[in-house]
Amino acid sequence: MKISVLNSTLAAVMFVFVCTSAHAAVISWNTWDTATSGTINSTAVIFSAGGSTDNLVSGYPTYTPSSTFADGSVVDNAPVSGNNIIQLTGGNANINTVTFSTPVVNPVIAIWSLGDSGASASFDFIGVTPVFVSGGPSDQYGGSSISISGDSVIGAEGNGTVQFHGTYSSISWTNPVNEGWYGFNVGASPVPLPSAMLLFVSGLGGFLGIARRKSGT
Length: 217
Known about the structure:
alpha+beta
């Protein structure tokens, strides 16, 4: 009887895990403290601009409407408005890199005001492929959605969010096109839920094994 209850419990946990993993992730967005450092919860975020003169802009932007930066299916919430932004001007081959002090799972990057209405600009990612999440106009400058071509994100006054599937300690890219300025922020799920759930299931499975041995089954 006890074994039957435990088996039912394990099945229920797995069902919850499958259902939960299909829902949008609540993202903890980075807060930029300086032009080279920020934090996602307890994870330090270091930005290296590859020798260019990119700047921190405080209290900016609004990241609205939220539907431009969060689709509600993959990403649940847009970046926090006024949570600072790194200004990029581009126009060179400098490699920009975001490094995480602790590896993060399925990180996201929100890109704001990429290019302008008369000229496209791009993030050319190095060795990683972005996956489109959402896009559209911003409340500040209008514009349209970003788009993806291979490992590049392209925009003509483009806004939106992309995701990188997998576990990452760093993400690198170049901004080869010079344009007034555009910016970005990064985020990740506060807890890698699949890993946490697997640990819980493993522990429950171990408890189940002990119970079976004690019952002699």
